[in-house]
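Please, structure for the following, as tokens.
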Amino acid sequence: MQNNIKEDLVLFNELVNELLADEFKNPVANVIPTSELNNKFDLTLKSTPAIAEDFKKELKNLVLNTPKSSSKLFFNQLFGGRHSKAILGDLLAVMLNNSMATYKIAGPQVAVEKEIIKEVSNIIGYPKAYGGTFPTGGSMSNFMSLVMARDKKDSEIRNKGMQEKFIAYTSKNSHYSIAKNAAFAGVGRDNIRYIKTDEKGRICADDFKNQVEQDIANGFTPFYINATAGTTVLCAFDNVAKLAPICKEHKIWLHLDGAFGGSVIFSKKYYHLVNGIENTDSFCFNAHKTLGAPLSTSILVVKDNRDLYNSFNNDATYLYQTDDENYNLGQTSFECGRRNNALKLWTLWKAIGTNGIADIVDHEFHLADTARNYVKDNKDYTLYSFEDSLSICFNYKDFDPEDLCTKLYENNKLMVGFGHSKGNAFVRLVTINGENSTEEIQNFFKILEEFALENSDLIKRI
């Protein structure tokens, strides 16, 4: 087969149209057991090229049998849906295929990324010294914040390694990347303090303060706290306004991981959930989680761009040959050859404006209210979550939530996950697909109830 971009784009359009049609008719893909993958697909790679028709047939087979993470019945992860304007930007980024390391190879795409960083920083109240980048995901954003905090506490670490016992803080409800990042950064998993949380899963500021003072008294060096705007299970928002004064007093880097819920910065109605954000040292959010942008669209901003530069710059004369450091983005990012993940957010933002993004966020919270009210008003349900959250955690009758979610998936009915908190297991419905309507939320419960009752003898009980 020839290398023919125009011909392959025609095939691409054909496959996409088939996917969209199939997604409408079959919003949940058939589950394929791992033991049957080799029978279902011809994935073998050979020394000879595939016949054109076989190639097309196998691509179609793969596409139509992949989990449909943008369908109206996908509630399984902290992402879902797709916004057409963001898709457009991502497809163009693929065609342009620029690396964002230098201005010489990315040109105006550098200005696209810088514009987004500027506007996000303005929205959250960072000073003119702000900086930012587009890491590969929330985990990398958190890692970069930890490295900057480490280096700011002791600038010699970059050259000489760890000399003191540094202590980082977070909660048990934070993202699992925090422990991994502590290991990567040389801090060590055992040097993380998991602070107590309240009934909603938010860090208790008084316990944080007491732990810091105790660590200092014992000769440790507190340097970093990871607060969360939207914890992964309950979507709790840590009280940044209460944590910030403690961090300022003890010179502790305050990072706000908003991978899940950080998009509330665009909403006048829900901005209060991150009050005090201007006092953080760094903040990140994932536009692919709540705004319908393709994976991965992660934004990290810092209060002082020098912290990014000091931790991630390295001389490379073979690379940085034109323009200054402000336009050679590889000097403030973890990666060198970094794909353009900014264009898809820019096309979305440019097309619908900040107010349009706010409408998406507000609508998703409205869907959450719809689901939560349904659970609260129905005696067959038990609610485990709270207001101002995009996670609706519940149990239906006495059905075991883990078994119910698994069987819904295995029978191609719904893709929804389960969670655990404070000794309770529950179904976790996340309303982060802005394309869904209240009718689709009601349909979710209808499908769940009908399936549970029809298969009541097959589903485990609590």
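The chain has a mean pLDDT of 96. The chain has 16 helices and twelve strands.
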